[in-house]
Amino acid sequence: MDLKQAHYETQCVQGGYAPENGEPRVMPIVQSTTYKYDKTDDVCKLFDLEADGHMYSRISNPTLAVLEEKIALLEGGVGAMMTSSGQAANMLAILNICKAGQHVLAMSNLYGGTHNLFGPTFKNFGIDVTFVDPSLSLEELKGYIQENTRAVFGETIGNPGVDVLDFEKAATLAHDAGIPLIVDSTFATPVLCRPFEHGADIVTHSTTKYFDGHATSVGGVIVDSGKFDWNNGKFPELTQPDETYHGVIYTEKFGAAAYITKVRVTLLRDLGSTMAPFNAFLTNLGLETLALRMKKHSENSLALAEYLENHPKVSWVKYPLLKSSKTYDLAQKYLPEGGSGIIAFGVKGGASAGKTFIDSVDLASLVIHVGDLRTHVLHPATSTHRQLSEEQQITCGVSPDLIRLSVGIENFEDIKADLEQALANV
Length: 426
Ligand code: PLP
Fold this sequence. Notes:
Structural class: alpha/beta
Bound molecules: pyridoxal-5'-phosphate
Strand order of the largest sheet: 1-7-6-5-4-2-3
Number of helices: 17
CATH architecture of the largest domain: 3-Layer(aba) Sandwich
Oligomer: single chain
Helix content: 25-40%
């Protein structure tokens, strides 16, 4: 069966690995840093990018390759590259086409760690990032594009404000400027949204979250749609000779896979943010049940969001598929199969009441994490977004009283009972 034509449930289970006669049914872990060759000419060909094959596990590895193929299949891309973390994925996705003296336009409602990376850290690299309010009109947003802007960046569902990206607007903004739209789709996963179908050019994920789904392995991935035309003079790193590979021109030699090939053979080679084979094995195991889990996370979350919205001790609730959500129309358009597992809400009495609530949960746990099968709670203003000023926190969608609930796949009634008893303490 051509898995490209299969449904995502089948792709999650069967994608990437097709054993031959007598080979292991489960994807094996190739725990080897090196590979053996018959002749020096074989090695020369690898170093000149003239032959396919594994050179060294910092750059590629057969276990990771299976996972990369499965994720590219799920997203509908031409190729994917695993990274050691979601942070590394976002960093390399930008650095692959943006250097010192250049600029990125990012939506402001991003994960706090991405704010740190894109703000102070990229500034030290000489890359300037402007954070813009995603609710601005297209014309207003265009005012922030500069001659040296090399990408537009957003999250499918913002962390933790859970606003949904206006793909059409963001893609038009990017494409009118001749630059790609890069989307971190961690909270949605390809089960709920496939950004390439809505104009995104590059997708990233923190696989640490729903892909793994069991909180065992930090990881990330970059996926290339293969659709962006790099030949407009803005991306010489892809269209001009690379002397580190004897003058290879990525767009000429690798066509639609130019971006994803270059990020691997230059940035993974040089910066070494590589995923370990064992983490790839665990991430793949998690991915096999992603479709089932995302449906259950979404079902539990919508029911809990509605329950919280009607609770007398709750002051406000945000969930993409709540009718009261300010991006409800976008959620209906881009997340028709479910709104994922993250709810943001505030309890009456503000931050201190929120603290009492968090300290009172029993089934749910207080952890610095989202997107695994257990229910979790967190107070972003004092944790993931702690480093930002209160003003910056507000632009990221983090009010002082915001509680982030990562809804697990336990029984809905049990999660609700836990929230109920914790709210009774407030
Ligand atoms: N992107 C989003 C949306 C996230 O929520 C996170 C982590 O929480 C990251 C990226 C960073 O991923 P990692 O923790 O795997 O480095």
